Structure formats: C-alpha cells, structure tokens
Amino acid sequence: MTCSEEVVKVEQAMKETKNVRMYKRYQVIFLKLTGKTIREIANTVKVSERTVDYYWAAYREKGLEGLVPKKPTGQPKKLTDDQEFELLDLIINNTPAGVGFPASYNWNAGIIREYVLREYNVKYSIRGMTLVLHRLGLSFTRPTYTLKKADLEKQEKFREDFEEIKKN
C-alpha cells in the first residue's frame, strides 16, 4: 500500500470513529504519515513522544488493528463458576438462619462474605463481595417491614396531620 493510500485509509478511520481515544490514535498515525516529527505530533495531540512511538510501532506491525486497545484482563475470579452458581442458588432459596447465621439477619454482603469464607475458604472484602453479587445479577434492597397490628385509620390521620405541619 502506498503512503497516500494509507493516509486515505487513516483519514477514513478518523471520520468513522466515535471513540475519542481511537480518534487520537488515528490522528497520531495520520500526522506521522503526512511527515510530521514525533515531537510535533506529541505536542499537537497532547501525548508523550513515547506514546507516539508506541502507536507508530503498533501501526507498523499490525496496521489499524494494532491501534485497538486490548481489553484489560483484570484479576481472575476467586470463586469458580460452579461455586458462584451454588452461592446464587443458596441466596435465592435460603435464609441466613437456614445456613447457620442468627435468625434476626437478612442476607447482606457481610453475611455472604462470611459464608463464602466458611464454605469455600475464599476471602473477600465487603466491596469485593458486592461486585460478585452484582455480577450474579443480584441487587441490594433494604427489607421493608409491615406491622401486623397497624391501625390504618391512625396512619391516615398521621399523614394528614403531617401534611398540615409541612405546610406551616
């Protein structure tokens, strides 16, 4: 491919992308193909000269595909898929009292964290456990309590009185 063909291809990619990071990478290549120095490119695009070199090397090796950032892998999961499925099933079908926790508790990240440590010997922070629960499709809600002996008439009178107080 000739230099002018490459320039056209990079220009087209710049026009088509909606991703700002990719646009900046394409812009680096475009400027390099049009004869700008690494220092000029770095100043124009507001990246380091090292970054310009990195993008140029990636482009030279793999073309435009080399500029696509790789998805970060992150830390591997601590629980296996089977263990996560068992945990989800347990949370949905049991109460904490059913698995040895005091009967006054509802499921929360702390209790689930303790359960995971006890059953699977895997330690999580509260935040880490909330991320696991989110990944499993669970969301947090506070339990609501309904008083069995609540007097509906008194509640309605209270609401009316409270609205009157708020107005004053």
Tell me what you see in this structure.
By secondary structure, the chain is mainly α. The protein folds into two domains: 3-67; 81-135. 60% of the residues lie in helices and 0% in strands. It is built from eight helices and no strands. Helix 2 (20-33) runs antiparallel to helix 3 (38-45), helix 3 (38-45) crosses helix 4 (49-62) and helix 6 packs across helix 7 (126-135).
Briefly, what is this?
By secondary structure, the chain is mainly α. The protein folds into two domains: 3-67; 81-135. Helices cover 60% and strands 0% of the residues.
Strand % is: under 5%
What are the segments in which pLDDT stays under 50 over at least 5 consecutive residues?
none
Strand segment tally: 0
How many domains comprise the coordinates?
Answer: 2
Q: Provide the gyration radius in Å.
A: 29 Å
The ordered H/E elements are HHHHHHHH
Estimate the global geometry from the Cα principal axes.
elongated
Q: How far apart lie the N and C ends?
A: 79 Å
Structural class: mainly alpha
Number of helices: 8
The major sheet is characterized as: none
Helix content: 55-70%
Average pLDDT taken over every residue: 87
Topology, element by element:
Elements: H1 3-16, H2 20-33, H3 38-45, H4 49-62, H5 81-93, H6 109-120, H7 126-135, H8 152-167
Helix pairs in contact: 1-2, 2-3, 2-4, 3-4, 6-7
What labels describe this entry?
mainly alpha, 60% helix, 168 residues, 2 domains
